[in-house]
Amino acid sequence: MTNLRDFIGAVREAGWLVEINKQIDPYLEMAPVIAALDGRPVLFNDVAGSEFRVLSGQCSDRRYFALALDCAVEELVFRMADAYSSPSDPRLVNRDEVPCQEVVMTTPDLRRLPFLTHYPDDAGPYATAAIAVVNDPDSGPNVSFHRLLRLDATHLAARIVERRGTDTALKKTPDDLPVAICIGLPLHVLLAASMAPPPGVDELAIANALAPTPVVQCLTNDLRVPAEAEFVLEGRITHRTVAEGPFVDLTETWDIVRQQPVIEIDCITHRRDAIYHALLPGQLEHKLLMGMPREPSIFAAVNEVCRCRNVSITPGGASWLHAVVQIDKQHADDGHKAAEAAFRGHGSLKHVVVVDDDIDLYDPNEIEWAIATRFQADRDLLVWENQPSSSLDPSATHIPGQKSRSAKMGLDATIPWDQPDSCTRLHEFVRVPFPKADVSAYL
Q1: CA within 20 to 30 Å of 368's CA: 72, 112, 163, 355, which one?
Q2: Distances (CA, A) of 327 to 15, 77, 312, 318, 353
Q3: Is 119 in the same domain as 21?
Q4: Is the residue at 288 inside a domain?
């Protein structure tokens, strides 16, 4: 599906869409409703103080990604891996063909957009599903997510993570850095923007490998953006900073207040009857968009050392810090090797569980069963001390200006092998299913 509206039509037809026609306020009222319906796409058709509708929850379940990419849930990691390894340059279209520039705000006013205030202690109204397109002077286009605090009609404060693409480009640019911020995008573009390819690989080319993603040049700079975006905010990232936060982040805990760059908006374009995407921080949509795009890199790293079947970054681990790796075990030490490789595939990973291919890696009960029946701590527990880790982990060691540090743990919950290259006790570790009778004859 190439745009957000096709997706809305598909989930409406499938019976998954919740539509709310009662007027609702984006200040503190909308977020609790989204939270109560977490896991469902929700379309708010009457938003107080804004002429725009709001959609949330479009990315809150793997089945929605499978629907958008026309594949099975189990195949998502392979679709992402293929697109990651084989990006395809998107087609540049003329401005007179593109929905995202149907309406141009002659005087940009961010207050017309329904930024949500989620908690009374938030720093202010935030955009949480915005991707920023910038151009690195050396490596070219970079596309990434940034939460945006609305300061006034034309200014935002952006949380820009240190030493990543946008931060690197800004530090190379003595003047303001041109930026285009897109809100209201199809799922495949959101997936691609969440990935972390090496410098020089355009995330929009990854998106185009997932599904057709035509692009158009902005009106006030030479950046290219998805032509099907609902909103495009064109502006400049300045070197001026302000306090950004408090904000509840991925781990559902308060992130610290930092001095962050100010973005000045020069132009806003949007589709007619545009739909604003509001992502609830710390909930399923946020977690899946953060975690799923890291699964292909873990899959690739583990495949270098053994046969990897699949990978799941789990919601219980904030979809960032925990992963389950499913392997086809061929050698006695494959489980240990897979655990070590998983941390190379995703540097922010904190804990990983490795399981055999008879375990459903999407079922936490099966994972726990594998740990209970196949794991021994003195044999199968791997611990690494004082490792580079994630700034999102509140229990890690955080020193300003330095990479966060944490201990890391791997659990090899695969069937133990008695011999180096053959399992002699397989029958002892395989679940025995109970035969189930047709009870209709007894009732």
Answers
A1: 72
A2: 35, 14, 12, 23, 11
A3: yes
A4: no
Cα torsion 41, 208, 206, 357 to 10°: value is 60
Contacts of 27 (CB under 8 A, 6+ apart): 116, 117, 125
Q: Token pair for residue 194?
A: 């969440």
pLDDT at residue number 399: 87
Same domain, 85 and 120: yes
DSSP conformation letters of 198-244: PTT--HHHHHHHHS---EEE-SSSS-EEETT-SEEEEEEEEEEEEEE
Q: What is the pLDDT of residues 240-251, one digit of tens each?
A: 999 999 999 888
H-only helix segments in 218-350: 284-291, 295-303, 334-345
Q: Does residue 47 form part of some domain?
A: yes
Q: Strands across the sheet with 275-277, in order?
A: 18-20, 42-44, 53-56, 275-277
Average model confidence (pLDDT) across the chain? 94
Q: Which residues are catalytic?
A: 249
Domain membership of residue 440 (yes or no) is no
Whether 423 is covered by a domain: the verdict is yes
Coil/strand/helix, residue 164:
coil
Pair (57, 206) in one structural domain: yes
Q: Where are the beta strands (DSSP E) in 251-359?
A: 254-255, 258-270, 275-277, 307-313, 322-328, 351-356
178: helix, coil or strand? Answer: strand
pLDDT in tens, 340-365: 999 999 999 999 999 999 999 999 99
Q: Which two tokens stand for residue 124?
A: 């202010």
Count the domains in the chain.
2
Q: 101-113, pLDDT tens digit by residue?
A: 999 997 999 999 9
Q: Which of 100, 124, 131 is nearest to 26 (CA)?
A: 124
Range of the domain at 387: 304-428
Rounded (to 5) percent helix, strand, coil in the chain:
30, 30, 45
pLDDT for the residue numbered 391: 82
Q: Which residues in the chain land under pLDDT 70?
A: none
* 98 in the same domain as 134: yes
CATH number at residue 341: 3.40.1670.10
Helix (H, G, I), strand (E, B) or coil at 194: helix
pLDDT of the residue at 423: 74
Residue 414: what pLDDT? 97
Q: How far apart are CA 229 and CA 368, in angstroms?
A: 42
Are both 192 and 325 inside the same structural domain? no
* pLDDT value of position 300: 92
- Residue 348 DSSP SS3: coil
Rounded to whole angstroms, the Cα distance separating 357 from 415 reads 10
φ, ψ of residue 66 in degrees (nearest 5):
-60, -40
Among residues 280, 315, 343, which one ends one of the domains?
A: 280
Identify the pLDDT of residue 299.
94
